Amino acid sequence: MAITISGDHAHIPSDTSQAVSFGEAEAAKLAQFKEWKSQMQGNLEMDWIISKAPASENRQLSFTYDAELVPKKMQLTNGNTDWDYASYIGIPNANAVSEEFKDAIESVEPGVHQFVPFEIYDREGKLIKKPFYFWRICTSLDAISPELGGVKPLGDLKEHFWQIKSGDNREKLAVKKDVIEGHAAWCDVRMPAHVFVSDAIVTVLEKQGLTGWTGMNYWKEI
Length: 222
Prior knowledge:
Helix content: 10-25%
Strand content: 25-35%
Distance between the termini: 9 Å
Shape: globular
Order of helices and strands: EEHEEEHEEEEEEEHEEHE
């Protein structure tokens, strides 16, 4: 089984832009990073669509970040840091994780994903002595299977992207077992906004009591 996960927002507000702030230098770095990422991802996606290449050749998800451009310091303005996983905190589309969460991923899939360390300061400006990392998922797979009928093409981009069907279709979600085998976490080229993890990872997260994440959808292996 595979699971798509998201932040549970028990520790960080759902609008994560309200959770942290940046100093002047880090804010400038963030703006530069956003511009770089948008251009990189947009170029790769457009090249892929124009070329009419198969979904498996979509490379917009798997490029690593330029770590020099990633902001390294932020100040907490809302919520707390009693979490191991947070969705999209600080920089766009980059999940933040604790060292324990990072170790859980690497216990199954070592040396594959990118983890960029950063610091969080409390409201008084004091460094919170807990390691945090921006987690860039560097594996993109064409793993979703439409065989059980749980997904459908997305608008005009039906050759490239899918979405979950509305209604009672959660039991019909499926991924290809042979494609996801051995992977801890990945993004799917047909549903790039979703974070997929293996049931082996979920077992580790639950066993260690790691917090901040919640299971969104459960996908059968076929």
